[in-house]
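ok, trying the design again with the full structure, not the truncated one.
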């Protein structure tokens, strides 16, 4: 039979064992709790890092790409009733007759083009060659200043939209004249038609201001820009090539420049002059030697961002 001393010794041993077991459990709990904290902190840090990375990727994407809107524009000019203008005189009636003939020409020769789809690059260049019956006019288009307009022009060129068309307008500088351009890009040859959609204005911000106090900007020789009506965001497929410094409101999107070789061809075209400078003449501002665009080729695209 155990003595009291032995029983007390056994009791103390059991107590020590219980205390050691309790200490081990508490240590294990602390280790487990610490591990949970580490996991939670790692998760929080991971989420923060992931969010930062996503924000950086989104910022980089926005810096390199944008969504361009190309609203449908299927409106076509309608004929004017000459009877409403009988009292305006023969010159007005002649102008109405010419306009109505142009409306008929649009119905016969209008082309529809497909607008670009998806996001468009904000940077990069496109080398484009306009092959005409007078020679080649190479262009260098810069997306940085006009990404939506350049994307549209390149897309139309790749569709063959400009092939077998004529440049319909040539303005010849005279005393006091402010506009020296060759205008092209309308398959109907009337200057009244487009691809069936419109493009937002991307006006230039770095043009010199005219020194005559008119508030106009100088579109320098060698500029390629989009033509439009007086309404905002009304550009389509028509473009103009500037062969002498020209004064215009800074509303016309600049797409790029004409090469020196192209300017020589352009000079040859403009040296021939126009059929008429009389606004009442059906041949008003038409090149004396017809300028036929045989094809427009995109030869290279460089510096485009990667998606």
């Amino acid at each position: 039979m155990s003595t009291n001393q032995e029983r007390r010794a056994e009791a103390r041993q059991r107590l020590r064992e219980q205390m050691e077991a309790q200490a081990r459990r508490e240590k294990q709990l602390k280790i487990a709790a610490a591990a949970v904290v580490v996991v939670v902190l790692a998760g929080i840090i991971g989420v923060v890092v992931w969010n930062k990375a996503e924000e950086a990727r989104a910022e980089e994407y926005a810096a390199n790409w944008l969504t361009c809107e190309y609203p449908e524009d299927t409106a076509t000019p309608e004929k004017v009733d000459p009877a409403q203008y009988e009292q305006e005189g023969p010159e007005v009636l002649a102008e109405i007759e010419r306009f109505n003939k142009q409306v008929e020409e649009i119905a016969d020769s209008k082309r529809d083009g497909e607008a670009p789809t998806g996001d468009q690059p904000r940077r990069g260049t496109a080398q484009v060659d306009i092959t005409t019956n007078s020679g080649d006019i190479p262009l260098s288009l810069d997306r940085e200043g006009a990404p939506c307009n350049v994307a549209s022009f390149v897309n139309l060129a790749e569709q063959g939209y400009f092939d077998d068309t004529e440049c319909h307008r040539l303005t010849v500088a005279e005393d006091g004249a402010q506009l020296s351009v060759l205008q092209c890009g309308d398959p109907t040859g009337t200057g009244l038609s487009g691809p069936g959609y419109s493009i937002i204005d991307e006006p230039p911000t770095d043009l010199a201001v005219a020194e005559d106090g008119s508030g106009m900007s100088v579109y320098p020789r060698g500029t390629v820009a989009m033509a439009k009506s007086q309404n905002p965001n009304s550009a389509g497929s028509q473009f103009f090539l500037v062969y002498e410094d020209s004064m215009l409101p800074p509303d016309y999107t600049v797409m790029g420049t004409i090469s020196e070789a192209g300017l020589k061809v352009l000079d040859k075209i403009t040296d021939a002059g126009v059929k008429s400078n009389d606004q009442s003449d059906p041949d008003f501002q038409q090149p004396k030697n017809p300028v036929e665009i045989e094809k427009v080729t995109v030869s290279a695209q460089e510096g485009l961002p990667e998606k």
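Keeping the full-length input from now on. Residues 4-65 form one domain.
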